[in-house]
Amino acid sequence: MIKITGMLIVICSSIFAGRVLGNRVKLRVEELIYLKKLLLMFRGELDYKNAMLPEAFMSVAIRAKKPYDKVFDELSRTTESNCTSTMAVVFETVITKYLKGNTYLKNEDLQKVYELGDTLGYQNKIMQLSNVDLFLDRLNVQIQEEREKMNDTVKVYRTMSAMTGLFVAIILL
């Protein structure tokens, strides 16, 4: 009786682990899509409202959900008051502080956002908009690639976790 209970617990927990891993893949894609939405808002602030960077960051911060609201709020405050650091340093510091470990974005995703920060703040409006557009294009490609891989990856996680649970349960017999 105890062996059967243990086997059921092992099987159920491994299936649950597979579902959790699969959901993380889906949530990462959703995070990338939300990041794209925020950057489209930011681009609109720069282009149509002719807002300066601190104003554009603050406008996005007001409409963003956590933890992105804190990111854009601090970017606004930092860019308005700090003239000694480059935008790349400010971006890396703020994004590492609020997004690393608090979202489903991977380090490679955050690295790309750091690169966006490197291109903002010292060029004219047209160049900044072009850099944001370039980043959005790269983000679109990445989202498309992740969506294509997502279903297969989720299936692999779920299948392998169930098979691992069954294998361990058989070994326990």
Proportion of strand residues: under 5%
Question: Radius of gyration, Cα only, in angstroms?
Answer: 21 Å
**How are helices and strands ordered from N to C?**
HHHHHH
Any idea what the shape is? elongated
Counted beta strands? 0
What is the mean pLDDT? 85
Distance between the termini: 11 Å
Q: What is the makeup of the main sheet? A: none
Give start-end ranges of low-pLDDT stretches. Answer: none
Count the DSSP helices. 6
Structural class: mainly alpha
Q: Helical percent range?
A: over 70%
Description:
- This protein is about 85% helix and about 0% strand.
- The protein has about 170 residues and is an all-alpha fold.
- The N and C termini lie close together (about 10 Å).
Record keyword descriptors for this entry.
173 residues; mainly alpha
Topology record:
Layout: H1 2-47, H2 53-63, H3 68-81, H4 87-98, H5 107-119, H6 125-172
Summarize the model shown.
Helix content is 83%, strand content 0%.
